[in-house]
Amino acid sequence: MAENKDSNERPETDGAKETNDSNPSNEANVNEASEMSGSNETDGAKESSGANEARGMSESNLSNEAGEMSEAGGATRNLLLEARDLYAGYVPEVDIVRGCDVEVAEGELVSVIGPNGAGKSTLIKSLFGLVPVSGGTIFFEDTEVTRSPTHKLVEAGIGYVPQTENVFPTLTVEENLEMGAYLRPEVIQERYEELFEWFPVLAERRSQRAGTMSGGQRQLVALARALMLQPSLLLLDEPSAGLSPANVDVISDRIQLINSKGVAILMVEQNAKRALAMSDRGYVLEMGQNRFTGPGEELLNDPKVADLYLGGRARSA
Ligand SMILES: Nc1ncnc2c1ncn2[C@@H]1O[C@H](COP(=O)(O)OP(=O)(O)O)[C@@H](O)[C@H]1O
Ligand SMILES: [Mg+2]
């Protein structure tokens, strides 16, 4: 059960990530896609650190996973992130995340799906120090980071893209990216080079204010900003929410590109089918708890998961 309530006073918000963007980020603009795609850079074959090992799905009780997974398929998986029995919530005594286990290995792409209000955003935020953790442990690269402040997690190599208000609308593309490197300004110029290569449309628009860009383009700005310090793990909260189908394709393609460059990704997605199809592994969260977990494909093809979570249009806020 939850214990150690001592850090509940920690403020939820991370100043650096908050903006006053009042623009709704959910407009759909079919013409955006061509503007956004820019490059046809191919997504190199994924190297997922043995992430596709066959593992049985388990319902709720995941307590034996750690041992089974660490040497799955004969190859040692290097765990980047390992959260165990995590409890977290916005106010004392009210846990939203209730005993979650989450792990991400180096280079993995992992999705968290589940119904609206399941606690997916809260889980991601608690991993990034934005929601108080009341119980359990979080390890990142073998160091315990439970209740570490967000800036320490950024220094350690974690990037985060919030679901909404994830760009500074009055700042230009370059200035937004600069904000992502405020901890290490000396790397800014060299990071621009790589990121403008990954997101050519941003190179063309480097002096444009983010607030004047389309929803899809703003999402690229947010992704690029989170990559400024070369995180080894990127946390994404519904990166394609509110985008047109064509732009969803563009964002998915860029996420896969980022992952193919070796950045591990833990993402919450509303489009559960699409997310699982591109993921090494997935977690289905329900009422703040793990409901199912397994390889993306296995979850996708599991009749229970399909009935419960993939049947209707899985849509969360
Ligand atoms: N800032 C907040 N303060 C208090 N409760 C919140 C806050 N954000 C979300 N919640 C509550 O936490 C629960 C889970 O929300 P959330 O993590 O956003 O779910 P999901 O992302 O799966 O849709 C909901 O009951 C929601 O009302
Ligand atoms: Mg959410």
SSE order and pairing:
Blueprint (H helix, E strand, L loop, with lengths): L31 H6 L27 H6 L8 E10 L8 E9 L3 E5 L6 H8 L5 E8 L2 E2 L5 H7 L1 E4 L11 H7 L8 H11 L1 H5 L10 H12 L6 E5 L7 H16 L3 E5 L3 H7 L2 E6 L2 E7 H6 L1 H8 L7
Parallel strand pairs: 3-8, 3-9, 6-7, 7-8
Antiparallel strand pairs: 1-2, 1-4, 4-5, 9-10
Helix pairs in contact: 5-8
The chain binds adenosine-5'-diphosphate and magnesium ion (MG).
The site of magnesium ion has 5 residues, from helix 3.
Could you say which small molecules are bound to this protein?
A: adenosine-5'-diphosphate, magnesium ion
What is the arithmetic mean of pLDDT?
Answer: 81
Strand order, largest beta sheet:
6-7-8-3-9-10
Instruction: Classify the secondary structure makeup into a structural class.
Output: alpha/beta
In the predicted model, the low-confidence regions spanning at least 5 consecutive residues are 1-34, 37-74, 312-317
Number of strands: 10
Please report which band the strand proportion falls in: under 5%, 5-15%, 15-25%, 25-35%, 35-45% or over 45%. 15-25%
Which value, in Å, is the CA radius of gyration?
18 Å
Explain what this protein looks like in three dimensions.
The chain has 317 residues and is of the alpha/beta class. It contains twelve helices and ten strands. The protein has helices at residues 32-37, 65-70, 120-127, 150-156, 173-179, 188-198, 200-204, 215-226, 245-260, 272-278, 296-301, 303-310, and strands spanning 79-88, 97-105, 109-113, 133-140, 143-144, 158-161, 233-237, 264-268, 281-286, 289-295. A six-stranded mixed β-sheet has the order 6-7-8-3-9-10, sandwiched between helices. Strand 9 (281-286) and strand 10 form a beta hairpin. Helix 5 (173-179) packs parallel to helix 8 (215-226). The longest helix has 16 residues, at 245-260. The chain is globular, with a radius of gyration of 18 Å. The chain starts with 31 loop residues before the first helix and ends in a 7-residue tail after the last helix. The model is unreliable at 1-34, 37-74 and 312-317 (pLDDT under 50). Magnesium ion (MG) binds at residues 120-121, 163, 316-317.
